[in-house]
Design brief:
heterotrimer, A alpha/beta, B alpha/beta, C alpha/beta, A: alpha/beta, Rossmann fold, Dimethylsulfoxide Reductase, domain 2, nine-stranded mixed β-sheet, 18 helices, globular, B: alpha/beta, Urease, subunit C, domain 1, eight-stranded parallel β-sheet, 26 strands, 22% strand
Chain lengths: 429, 569, 130
């Protein structure tokens, strides 16, 4: 029996690195300091694993050797005129590097889950920028914390305890008592319930509310009685809190990226925070979902110049969200093969895109059975990054942390990066 | 690998006193050797050409968190410079924030073989290593940001100099960094509450110290630890008219610190152009280069790099958070700020230098003035502070300006008249020769860095060689385009004895080494510092101490420079 | 048939996260994800009790899930956890942004007490046959 300290959790963008894991007989039997989801991830790492590489023959997935699966993958990719490589946010950075190398080699399009998560945030940042800081700055300084369109109690469970609401930091020795917590959302979420102030915004009207706040802070006299379902006097109250705090932060999530206005919401939010910097210290931080979606953007940016939605069909990277993003290339047609790594788009994409994915030859690289492996034409099981293999992951604030290996994967089960390398090598031959 | 003989070139090897002598350079097993059997070697005919050691860039933002922020911020910059893949090279994008592969290729094309990334926050050091691992050909290292670090400031405040030294050593080891970087000391900490500093004697809030004390503490620490390279320092009040006075005070504040051993310098003021502004506002803006150069001529403890302006659209990125905010306010351009807990800050803002802009015209003049007025080429280094002053691909243009009075006056003729009236440039007719160019782009920088096998072509040096198609004996400065062309695309670049560039194109793409400095300090003081670190991490950081240091896996080709600081502790 | 119109939001829940780590084909996953939260008032209007099956229909598709009643939702608003059941009714138009409208789609809810909830395998087969 062995116990490992300071293990890094490979689930969400919090990338908690204080997990204690106990391993016995090649299985994790205990995990401490985890949230509910992390506990499930660590304790259930052997559940629903794919046993063998498989190829679909006569409509059914049958077990084959790894070599055969690699060969068939190569066949599919080499014979396709425009393949899609997608996923990548739930695996470590080396796999990301290999996936991009592969997409360049076969002239395909490579996209990561950012495109259905904080893609609009990226678009907004490319317009206006982003005043931001690492999470420790929030822990150590923030006295006003706003959660806009996000619900950490559901999606980033230890965020409030480790970073944003209760921790006692260098200039925040009173912890929770030092901070005013505000939630802005369309419904009363778990986060709203534990906040000091809950502002209920009409669905699809965050842009208006952000703009009204910014106008108020600039000193414009607004004649509305309310904006976006929020009374003007409430808006003025929130604006005043923002202006007079010592260090404020807005954490924002998919409530802004996925609703009407999308990246324009980000534009409005950043412009609001920029405005606030004339009065006090204020930053904004996106609540990145998957534990390494930030890493996927990082790797993509340093290798191609662009954080997601990159096409290599002309031999050099081209960027165009809306054209090269995975949902679009699937829904509108165009890609004629797909390589899905560490993701389940058959389940997480809108049904039309998912349906089109099931119709094209699809190679799926994943540790577990998912809806995408069920529709795949080649399925290759791999090691779980952060449990069975090492690699770098980037936290939601861009801090890189090295994932640990606490268990050996089963015989023949390799890390994603090695499988991708095998495909690359075979194509090059 | 076969040996190489580079025959009959005009060799410039200032560290070995060779200035244009026509001679052969022999290479075997990746090193410069006295001789090699010609019939067993590849022979390169370099007659009529200039042969120099591979370029060594002492300060260029090429890898890491803020660089990558710049990349993802600027798709519009990339779209104008798409780089297709070739048989030997990966694809990518270029211009002001090139992708990592393109960065390596383009440096090699200019005959550069070593590059130092100048500003890395320890918490994100792994990121810089990952990017450098994907930057082919060039050897690299980076400077670790230290001046706005919580424990550094605490030790300075409490006068715990021994702990400061031990902590500097620990930080270098934890990050696998090369030396100390200082950026707007105290100002970046104040910026975390929305403030800044106005002078080096201003207050650093909550720490009861001044920038002066931070600078002196770190400069002294470097001396006593015996690090190979001096402290690189980005001075306070960057970008503010009248800041040359702050720069002078910054240099003065270390006048009394004695260099240890046979070194003469104790500090290197970076991209000094941005910190050599005279005048009180942008209305009476003029060059402060003469004052700064004058001081440097009279005081040997300082070196400078230029931060030369290029008239183009580029991307500014520094660890100076408040400066970057200021630039956003000045321009209205998109702005990213990135404060790093307990350690550092950063900011990124696109910017266009225009020859029609009166202020930019003066800025352009300042960089060149400094290079031409400082008498000792060994204490002045050619940089554009890439990409802050302009992309590194324009270095050959800077060389042309330095080597040719006509090149300068031609540009002045197309530039706003302040370039002529608010700088001393029109009255300067000094022209750098090839030897001086070799000093400010390779020999001097390698020497300053303390990289013993770089920047020269003596026996035993790494076989990093650049061959440029320009005849130094026949060169007329008025034909400066020749130099620009020749240095933009090396006829040959050799790296560790392998030909990597031929006729300006990359033909091989080996990976480079990572230089880092490992300083041994006395056990007891290290233990004391570790105790303080444990407390700081438990209380204030958001990662565990165990996960903080850079692991071996991030340096596939490490080049560790070991220093034992215990003897003279 | 009685139906009510709602604005549908899809999003993460802790149970959805914890059960997906067991596995997408697990019963726990279906239990925690094939559902819709309705306001008590809306549920009453349709005569629904906690756990009844409902049909969720949008311009893009329809799906049967079980309902949960919530005190915290306003009438006219509904919430489904991320996953393949919610995605049966989400459109793939991204209006040039790459991002579908996962939050804020107009939906009609009607009682569907006898209808069965499809399993992941059945959903997958439907895609392939589709």
């Amino acid at each position: 029996m062995s116990t490992y300290e300071n293990v890094v959790c490979p689930f969400c963008g919090c990338l908690c690195d204080d997990i204690e894991v106990t391993v016995e007989d090649g299985k994790i039997v205990k995990a401490k300091r985890t949230c509910k989801v992390a506990l499930s991830k660590f304790l259930n790492h052997t559940e629903n694993r794919i046993e063998n590489p498989m190829i679909r023959k006569d409509g059914k997935l049958v077990p084959v050797s790894l070599g055969e699966a690699i060969d068939q993958s190569v066949e599919i990719l080499v014979n396709s005129s425009w393949p899609l490589v997608y996923g990548l946010a739930s695996t470590e950075c080396d796999a990301n590097r290999k996936a991009i190398e592969l997409a360049e080699l076969v002239g395909g399009v490579v996209d990561n889950t950012t495109s259905v998560c904080h893609g609009p945030t990226v678009l907004g940042v490319q317009d206006v920028g982003e005043p931001t800081a690492t999470l420790g700055e929030i822990k150590n300084r923030a006295d006003l914390v706003v959660f806009w369109g996000c619900n950490p109690t559901a999606a980033h469970i230890r965020h409030t305890a480790r970073y944003s609401v209760s921790p006692k930091g260098l200039f925040t020795p009173e912890g929770r008592k030092h901070r005013t917590i505000v939630t802005v959302d369309v419904r009363e979420t778990g986060m709203a319930t534990i906040s000091d102030l809950f502002v209920k915004v009409k669905p699809g009207m965050d842009f208006e509310l952000l703009s009204a706040l910014r106008a108020t802070i600039r000193g414009h006299e607004m004649k509305n009685e309310d904006v976006a379902g929020v009374k003007m006097e409430e808006i003025r109250r929130v604006a005043e809190k923002m202006k007079t705090c010592r260090f404020g932060v807005i954490f924002f999530g998919l409530g802004l990226t996925m609703s009407k206005s999308k990246y324009m919401n980000m534009d409005a939010l950043v412009c609001l925070v920029r405005e606030l910097n004339a009065h006090t210290k204020f930053v904004a931080l996106p609540m990145r979902g998957h534990y390494n979606v930030t890493g996927s953007c990082m790797v993509s940016s340093w290798l191609t110049g662009y954080p997601y939605a990159v096409d290599f069909s002309r031999g050099y990277p081209r960027y165009n969200p809306g054209e090269f993003t995975a949902v679009d290339v699937l829904a509108k047609g165009g890609v004629d093969a797909a390589l899905i790594v560490a993701s389940d788009p058959a389940a997480s994409f809108p049904v039309e895109a998912a349906r089109n994915l099931s119709k094209i030859p699809t190679i799926v690289i994943d540790p577990k059975v998912t809806m995408t492996t069920l529709i795949g034409d080649v399925v290759i099981p791999v090691a779980v990054a952060g449990i069975e293999c090492e690699g770098t992951a980037y936290r939601m604030d861009g801090v890189p942390i090295r994932l640990r290996k606490v268990i050996d994967p089963h015989e023949g089960v390799l890390p994603d990066s090695e499988v991708l390398q095998m495909i690359i090598d075979r194509i090059r031959e | 690998m076969t040996g190489i003989v580079i025959k009959n070139g005009f060799v410039f090897d200032p560290l070995n006193g060779i200035a244009g002598e026509q001679m052969d350079i022999c290479i075997d097993n990746g090193k410069i050797v006295k001789e090699v059997e010609e019939r067993k070697a590849k022979v390169i005919n370099a007659s009529g050409m200039t042969v120099m050691p591979g370029g060594v860039d002492i300060h260029s933002h090429i890898a890491g968190s803020k660089v990558n922020t710049g990349r993802s911020l600027r798709p519009e910059d990339h779209r104008k410079d798409a780089v297709p893949k070739t048989k030997y090279t990966r694809s990518g994008v270029g211009y002001s924030v090139p992708t990592t592969y393109v960065t390596g290729y383009r440096y090699a094309k200019m005959g550069y073989t070593t590059v130092i990334e100048p500003a890395v926050p320890p918490l994100k050091a792994k990121h810089t290593h990952e990017e450098l691992n994907d930057t082919p050909i060039v050897d690299s290292g980076f400077l670790t940001l230290m001046d706005n670090n919580y424990l550094v400031m605490k030790y300075v405040r409490d006068n715990e100099f021994e702990k400061l030294k031990a902590f500097v050593a620990w930080l270098l080891r934890a990050t696998r960094g090369y030396t100390i970087k200082v950026v707007n000391p105290g100002g970046v900490e104040n910026w975390k509450w929305g403030g800044n500093v106005d002078s080096i004697d201003d207050e650093v809030k909550n720490f009861d110290i001044t920038p002066r004390e931070i600078i002196r503490g770190l400069v002294r620490a470097r001396e006593e630890l015996g690090l190979p390279h001096v402290v690189q320092l980005h001075a306070s009040r960057l970008g503010v008219p009248g800041n040359y006075e702050t720069t002078l005070k910054t240099m003065q504040c270390c006048e009394d610190i004695r260099p240890i051993g046979d070194r003469e310098g104790v500090m290197h003021v970076v991209h000094v152009q941005f910190n050599s502004f005279a005048g009180e506002s942008f209305a009476d803006f003029r060059s402060g280069a003469s004052e700064v150069a004058d001081y440097v001529n009279k005081h040997k403890h300082v070196a400078l790099d230029l931060g030369q302006v290029i008239f183009t659209d580029t991307t500014t990125m520094t660890g100076d958070g408040p400066w970057q905010y200021r630039l956003y306010k000045l321009t209205g351009n998109k702005w990213v700020n990135g404060d790093v807990e307990l350690e550092a800050g950063s900011g990124v803002v696109p910017y266009t230098f225009k020859s029609s802009s009166p202020v930019n015209a003066v800025q352009w003049g300042i960089g060149l003035e400094v290079a031409l007025l400082v008498e000792d080429p060994w204490r002045v280094y050619l940089t554009t502070d890439h990409p802050n002053g302009g992309p590194f691909i324009y270095y050959p243009k800077v060389m042309a300006w330095l080597m040719s009075e006509k090149a300068r006056s031609d540009t002045l003729g197309e530039t706003h008249k302040w370039g002529s009236s608010r700088t001393a440039l029109p009255s300067i007719d000094r022209e750098y020769d090839f030897n001086e160019i070799a000093v400010v782009t390779r020999a001097g920088t390698a020497k300053a860095l303390g990289l013993k096998n770089k920047g020269h072509l003596g026996v035993g040096a790494d076989a990093d060689v650049a061959i440029y198609d320009v005849n130094p004996k026949k060169f007329e400065p008025s034909n400066y385009e020749l130099v620009e062309k020749a240095f933009s695309a090396a006829r040959y670049t050799v790296k560790d004895g392998e030909i990597v560039v031929k006729d300006g194109e990359v033909v091989a793409s080996p990976s480079g080494r990572r230089f880092w400095v490992n300083v041994k300090v006395p056990d007891d003081i290290e233990k004391a510092v570790l105790g303080d670190l444990k407390e700081v991490f438990e209380k204030y950081y958001t990662v565990s101490l165990e996960n903080y240091p850079v692991q071996d896996e991030y340096l596939p080709k490490p080049e560790e420079i070991r220093i034992d600081a215990t003897e003279k502790w | 048939m009685a139906e009510i119109k709602v604005v549908l939001i899809s999003g993460r829940t802790a149970d959805q996260g914890a059960s997906l780590e067991i596995g997408k084909t697990s019963d726990e996953y279906r239990e925690n994800v094939a559902l819709i939260e309705l306001s008590k008032k809306d549920a009453e209007e349709l005569g629904l009790s906690e756990g009844d099956h409902v049909n969720v229909k949008t311009d893009y598709g329809s799906t049967v899930v079980k309902c949960r009643l919530s005190e915290k939702l306003d009438p006219g608003l509904a919430f489904m956890p991320y996953g393949p059941w919610a995605n049966q009714v989400i459109g793939s138009e991204t209006h040039g942004t790459g991002m579908p409208y996962y939050k804020g789609v107009q939906a009609s809810i009607s009682s569907s007490k006898g209808a069965s909830i499809l399993t992941i395998e059945e959903l997958a087969n439907r895609l392939m046959r589709g």
